[in-house]
Design a protein that fits this description.
CATH architecture of the largest domain in chain B: Up-down Bundle
Oligomer: heterotrimer
Largest sheet of chain B: none
Radius of gyration of chain B: 20 Å
Distance between the termini of chain C: 49 Å
Order of helices and strands of chain C: EEHHHEEEEHHHHHHHHHH
Number of helices of chain C: 13
Largest interface: A-C, 71 and 88 residues
Helix content of chain B: over 70%
Structural class of chain B: mainly alpha
Number of domains of chain C: 1
Strand order of the largest sheet of chain C: 1-2
Number of helices of chain B: 7
Chains: A mainly alpha (about 120), B mainly alpha (about 170), C mainly alpha (about 350)
Shape of chain C: globular
Distance between the termini of chain B: 60 Å
Order of helices and strands of chain B: HHHHHHH
Shape of chain B: globular
Chain lengths: ~120, ~170, ~350
């Protein structure tokens, strides 16, 4: 168990050290001449208009919610896929029911136009 | 010995990051701390020979649910929390906290921490595989709950659409 | 040699550190030279020469670029959320550079009587004469891929710039959508392999029994969705420079910008390696070359295909992109799972 997971921890440490090291190094050797204009957000050279922290389209929110729900479906599919040859016809039927029920939901989402970007 | 040292380090990170979840002024930083907590939990699952649970913890909780929470924080445009908490909130919080502390101490002294030993042990998990064991239980013994899950997901899908569409 | 640390021989630790360092440096070099190769290949496809000045045929270009970024001024916008702004590049970089840990890149080799599996997160078990690896290797990669979205969302949000925010939002919605389709596409591979362990999946494909032949739909859908998930052209909407300047990394400079750049290319390398492992037989190939060379050849070929696609196809429009993911790939992958189930059950 340990033999398979220890290398991942070492790799995380190497990657983090590389990332942190290069950020710190570049901020040490890079030049620093801050000015008000340089520190303002980029807006094609004009003065920034309004705030960037505006509310945004609810579309993104729907996508995130639907993503969670279908992701959970995918999570249920993984152990089933591993076992499905051993479960045989029975396994196919039970997952068939599961997928059909969720597909009804999918069609509902489609028909209500939640997947449209207008 | 080294394993319990590693456990203590991860546990410390988990506790610190979960404290940061409630103390950070900026909601996005709180969300990040929560992701870190989920990571520590995933590490615990791996240490308990449950790699599938660890993967689910990362994929579903850290990778999906927290993305939604971050989106909501951005959507609602929650600024840094500036207002001071009222004394009522502090009082209520301390009382609840004391009760939870008392409860935890009670269970630590009176209850059994490990619970009952089931049929699954480390040797079996290594031989058969964690995913296989979970799948076997889920798709034979717990078939009905599994199918009901699909209905729950269906309800959630419909709910998501109704909540977020102006015209149905 | 027989001393044990935590139940593992000393040779294990030496081999483990060596594998981690070699693989890390190799991926880093591949990332650096993928940027060069991309400029050269696309240049020649468009009847240009690409970089020529730095070194012979511009071979030192990636090194020059990297050095230049080290000396650049670090700009942190005044109204940004400092902590998230500083952490975002690391959050993008680290998952990209650790997800290749579970990919087997060669057969088990023997050095000084000790068996070393050519896979970072694996150990040879002498008792059972088998390689123990991460039991849920594929899910580990999917988990790391799903964390990549934080880097982008944080970068977009913390910069406090309109272009960054829009780029970050678009990018994250695109990533989660295609992550879903890619995750569902590989279910049909697990139905054939009966395991989530990459060792087992590769072993099943020995002798040209590639899953790409058995699951062509899953292969194509997975590759396309992975390209979309890592924001490669023709799905590089977040960096649509004609409308969003540079997307989520508009406000980034110096090495912090380079981190996003490296993460993007490391993700591309990982996607190509995963596709090779799941569908193109992994390191298996005719015996006249060792396995790891076959693995590198296949991965580099897929990287070339990515660049070829970039030079060939125009960028998608955002609504087309989301429609393609949700209304075409998602039902297609579910259909593929059901079809695989029916066919396999009937054949048995």
């Amino acid at each position: 168990m340990l033999g398979a997971y220890l290398p991942i921890i070492v790799l995380v440490a190497v990657a983090a050290a590389f990332g942190l090291g290069s950020i710190i190094l570049s901020s040490l050797i890079g030049q620093k001449k801050p000015s008000d204009v340089k520190m303002s957000p980029y807006e094609c050279g004009c003065d920034p208009v309004g705030s960037a922290r505006e509310r945004f389209s609810i579309k993104f929110y729907i996508i995130a919610m639907l993503f969670i729900l279908f992701d959970i479906e995918a999570v249920f599919l993984y152990p089933w896929a591993v076992l499905f040859k051993r479960l045989g016809m029975f396994g196919l039927m039970e997952m068939g029911v599961f997928i059909v029920i969720l597909f009804v939901g999918y069609i509902y989402v489609w028909k209500k136009g939640a997947l449209e970007w207008e | 010995m080294l394993e319990s040292l590693f456990f203590l380090i991860v546990a410390a990170v988990a506790v610190i990051s979960s404290i940061l979840v409630i103390t950070c002024k900026n909601p996005i930083n709180s969300a990040l701390s929560l992701v870190m907590t989920f990571f520590c939990l995933a590490t615990f699952y791996v240490m308990l020979d449950a790699p599938f649970m660890a993967a689910i913890q990362v994929i579903v909780y850290a990778g999906a649910i927290m993305v939604l929470i971050v989106f909501v924080i951005m959507l609602l445009n929650i600024r840094t929390e500036t207002g001071r908490k009222t004394t009522h909130a502090i009082l209520a919080g301390s009382i609840i906290g004391l009760f939870v502390l008392f409860q935890t101490c009670y269970f630590l002294t009176k209850g059994t921490l490990t619970g009952t030993k089931g049929a699954m042990d480390t040797a079996l998990v290594e031989k058969v595989g964690h995913v296989e064991l979970i799948g076997k239980a889920l798709y034979t013994d717990f078939l009905l709950p599994f199918e009901i899950t699909s209905l729950l997901l269906l309800v959630a899908i419909i709910g998501a659409v109704i909540l977020s569409k102006r015209k149905i | 040699m027989d001393t044990l640390i935590l139940g593992l021989p000393v040779a294990y630790y030496i081999a483990m550190i060596a594998k981690v360092l070699v693989a890390f440096v190799f991926v880093l070099l591949t990332v650096a030279y993928a940027t060069y190769a991309e400029r050269k290949i696309i240049g020649h496809m468009q009847v240009r020469l690409g970089p020529m000045r730095t070194g012979w045929h511009g071979l030192l270009q990636p090194i020059a670029d990297g050095l230049k970024l080290f000396f650049k001024e670090e700009i942190i916008p005044a109204q940004s959320s400092k902590f998230a702004f500083l952490v975002a590049p690391l959050v993008a970089l680290i998952p990209a550079f650790i997800s290749f840990a579970v990919i087997p890149f060669g057969e088990t080799i023997t050095i000084g009587g000790y068996q070393i599996p050519l896979q970072i997160a694996a150990v040879y078990d002498p008792a059972g004469d088998r390689v123990l690896d991460v039991n849920v290797g594929v899910l580990y990669i999917l988990g790391m891929a799903s964390l990549g979205v934080y880097g982008i969302v944080l970068a977009g949000w913390s910069s406090n710039s309109k272009y960054s925010l829009l780029g970050g939002l678009r990018s994250s919605a695109q990533m989660v959508s295609y992550e879903l389709a890619a995750g569902l596409a590989i279910v049909s591979v697990f139905m054939l392999s009966e395991s989530l362990s990459l060792q087992k999946i590769v072993a099943d494909q020995a002798g040209f029994a590639w899953y790409a032949f058995k699951q062509p739909v899953a292969f194509i859908v997975f590759f396309i969705c992975s390209l979309a998930e890592i924001n490669r052209t023709p799905f590089d909407l977040p960096e649509a420079e004609t409308e969003l300047v540079s997307g989520f990394c508009t406000e980034y400079s110096s090495m912090k910008y380079a981190m996003f750049f490296m993460a993007e290319y490391a993700n591309m390398v990982t996607v190509c390696a995963v596709t090779t492992t799941l569908f193109l037989g992994g390191w298996h190939g005719p015996a006249f070359l060792p396995g790891w060379i076959w693995f590198i050849i296949k991965v580099y070929f897929l990287i070339f295909v990515c660049m070829w696609i970039r030079a060939t196809y125009p960028r998608y429009r955002y609504d087309q992109l989301m429609r393609l993911g949700w209304k075409f790939f998602l039902p297609l992958t579910l259909l593929n799972v059901v079809a695989t189930g029916i066919v396999v059950t009937l054949l048995k």
